[in-house]
Amino acid sequence: MHITQLNRECLLHLFSFLDKNSRKNLGKTCRKLLEVFQDPLLWSLLNFHSPVDLKKDNFLLGPALKHLSICWYSERVKVCNTEDWMKNSFQKDFCKRHENTVSDFLLDVCNRCPNLLSLTLSGCGHVTDDCILQLLKNCPNLKSLKLENCVRITDHTLKAVTFHGASLQILHVDFCRNVTQAGLDRVREKCPSVMLRAERSANMIPDSKPEKRLMLEKASRKWVQL
1-42: what CATH class? Predict the structure, then answer.
């Protein structure tokens, strides 16, 4: 029995065991398998392990996407997560090459994947508060937002959660060193039902130069009182 003689349900089940490259290669073999590759039901879950993977043409984005994970575990993460004012010219050039890769991809998700339920980002040092704000606005069903070692995430993301995270049940901001205790306290006050975890975040040294840290702490306390 040839693989193309299987019905659509069986083929989708078969494709589900393959990685993105294998799905793409199998889809190239004939029209019927290409149609299976392009079936939205096949793309409810996406995992990426490098920003480079986001630029490959081996997956589909659409309303069927429910769970998205972008986890970059590499020595290069240390460069991206270094404070900008501490980077040398070589490090700045390296970061500039992919600075907007993840953010641009997430903005595409905002426009094409309104039914997203969970998002996990780890080591994505260039993702900004504005990007997460747009995601919260455009994906109203988002229930789980897990951010780890995303150094540009600040209290502005926490504030966005209090305004636009109506469906949110889980919020992790682990090792996000520019998140403050004041911002975390605000989320706990405004969204008591959200399971909030912030391992090491508020206790880490922020990205400001030493002379500016005191000003940031004062600003954070004032922000909470508003």
Answer: mainly alpha
